[in-house]
């Protein structure tokens, strides 16, 4: 195993599970300051006297456990809370943390800055993989999922998007509080808040968008086929796993689009009025099944997220009048053959988690499995995968086992060569 847990900055904490997060936030555009209360439902695994949460550079003012003031320390990105009397195994308690400050993203060695970040006029949260503690106290482990309620108060004129469906919009003075409920379990890195002066666009029932006004026209053209994309993916991958799907287009340019649960975020540079980035629209939508609903138990299996999302680009292409998946696979293989062959995508080093070779080779792996099994077995297998592990987590071994049940062809040599050896098969 070459994936070093140290690269995850020590995020994630043993001894308990969080089943629900209730986050009440107020954000001021003039200062960038966040004032927040987080209420977490914490369930002890074994008897527990201290709850350790991940939280970055924000200032904690008060902590309550079960409604009573608790003792705590906050240093090195860890908020350590004394439970008071020891919490018995499997019992639950509410932990409330009040905090404030101007959030800054988490700096990482390999992935740049992740988490809460200010836009020219608003906020973007893109936490993959370790950015969640930049804005709320959490158990920042990829495999830990919980339900969420997120309420955000902003001055009038700003639109807020967060995970789940909108549960309320209440005006008070010159502020509006936007409340969202996410009843489907979610990893902390997929929790998001998007704030900006956006225009609301309805694309189809259950599909909405918040778009920077300068890109409205181009957006309507570039995303016009997203409803067809949704229908295709439902046909191929099974029911859409969440209540709704939202898209954000920021006024700022972004290096890459990013996925959150039920929401994808694109930069102004990804909307050109020519559908020049339509493959990315497909990629991000596919993450709702692969990565968000079927989540990872560990980051070393990241190819499961990116391989499926990249393969979905090819499936959309062949079903929407573009090149067939086999042609795109052949082209990707030719390109990969010209790249350094030192990456084992089934166990990548942390620095290569988001390497394009992992994406392309992941897609090629799935195309090779499809070719070996035939479409009549491959697509039912995909639907069983998204059904069995819906709102849960899965591993590469789980996929290998499931795929093998759908064919008499021995898939072990194929998976070994594509996932666990560096040279291109
Ligand atoms: Zn992706």
From TrEMBL:
Reaction catalysed by this enzyme: Release of an N-terminal amino acid, Xaa-|-Yaa- from a peptide, amide or arylamide. Xaa is preferably Ala, but may be most amino acids including Pro (slow action). When a terminal hydrophobic residue is followed by a prolyl residue, the two may be released as an intact Xaa-Pro dipeptide
Coiled coil: none
Pfam family, one: Peptidase_M1_N
First-tier enzyme category under EC: hydrolase
Catalytic residues of the enzyme: 284 (proton acceptor), 359 (proton donor)
Cofactor note: Binds 1 zinc ion per subunit.
Source domain of life: Bacteria
CC annotations in GO: cytoplasm
Alphabetic keyword roster: Cytoplasm, Hydrolase, Metal-binding, Metalloprotease, Protease, Zinc
Subcellular location(s) of the protein: Cytoplasm
GO biological process: proteolysis
EC code: 3.4.11.2
Listed GO MF terms: alanyl aminopeptidase activity; metallopeptidase activity; zinc ion binding
UniProt keyword annotation of Transport present: no
Ranges of residues in domain Peptidase M1 membrane alanine aminopeptidase: 238-418
Family: Belongs to the peptidase M1 family.
Protein name: Aminopeptidase N
Taxonomic source organism: Labedaea rhizosphaerae
């Amino acid at each position: 195993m070459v994936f070093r847990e140290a690269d995850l900055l020590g995020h994630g904490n043993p001894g308990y599970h969080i089943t629900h997060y209730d986050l009440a936030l107020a954000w001021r555009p003039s200062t960038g300051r966040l004032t927040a209360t987080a209420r977490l439902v914490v369930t002890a695994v074994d008897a527990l006297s201290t709850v350790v949460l991940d939280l970055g550079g924000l200032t904690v003012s008060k902590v309550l456990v079960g409604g009573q003031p608790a003792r705590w320390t906050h240093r090195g990105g860890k908020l350590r809370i004394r439970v008071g009397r020891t919490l018995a195994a499997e019992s639950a308690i509410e932990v409330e943390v009040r905090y404030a400050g101007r959030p800054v993203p988490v700096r990482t060695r390999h992935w740049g800055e992740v988490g809460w970040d200010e836009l020219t006029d608003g906020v973007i949260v893109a936490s993959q993989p370790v950015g969640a503690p930049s804005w709320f106290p959490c158990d920042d482990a990829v495999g830990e999922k919980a339900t969420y309620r997120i309420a955000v108060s902003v001055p009038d004129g700003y639109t807020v998007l967060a995970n789940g469906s909108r549960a309320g919009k209440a005006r008070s003075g010159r502020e509006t509080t936007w409340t969202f409920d996410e009843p489907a379990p979610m990893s902390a890195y997929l929790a998001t808040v998007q704030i900006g002066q956006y225009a609301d666009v309805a694309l189809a029932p259950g599909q909405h968008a918040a778009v920077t006004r300068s890109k409205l026209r181009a957006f309507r053209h570039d995303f016009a086929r997203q409803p067809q994309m949704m229908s295709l993916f439902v046909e191929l991958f099974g029911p859409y796993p969440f209540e709704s799907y939202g898209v954000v287009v920021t006024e700022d340019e972004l290096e890459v689009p990013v996925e959150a649960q039920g929401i994808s975020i694109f930069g102004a540079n990804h909307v050109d009025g020519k559908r020049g980035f339509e493959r990315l629209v497909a990629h991000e939508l596919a993450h709702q099944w692969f990565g968000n609903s079927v989540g990872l138990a560990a980051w070393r299996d990241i190819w499961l997220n990116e391989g499926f999302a990249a393969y979905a680009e090819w499936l959309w292409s062949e079903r929407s009048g573009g090149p067939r998946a086999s042609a795109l696979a052949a082209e990707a293989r030719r390109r990969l053959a010209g790249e350094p062959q030192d990456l084992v995508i089934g166990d990548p080093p942390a620095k290569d988690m988001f390497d394009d070779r992992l994406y392309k080779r992941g897609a090629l792996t799935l195309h090779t499995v499809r070719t070996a099994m035939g479409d009549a077995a491959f697509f039912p297998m995909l639907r069983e995968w998204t059904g069995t592990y819906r709102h849960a987590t899965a591993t590469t071994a789980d996929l290998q086992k499931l795929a093998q049940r759908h064919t008499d062809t021995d898939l072990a040599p194929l998976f070994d060569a594509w996932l666990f050896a560096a040279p291109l098969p």
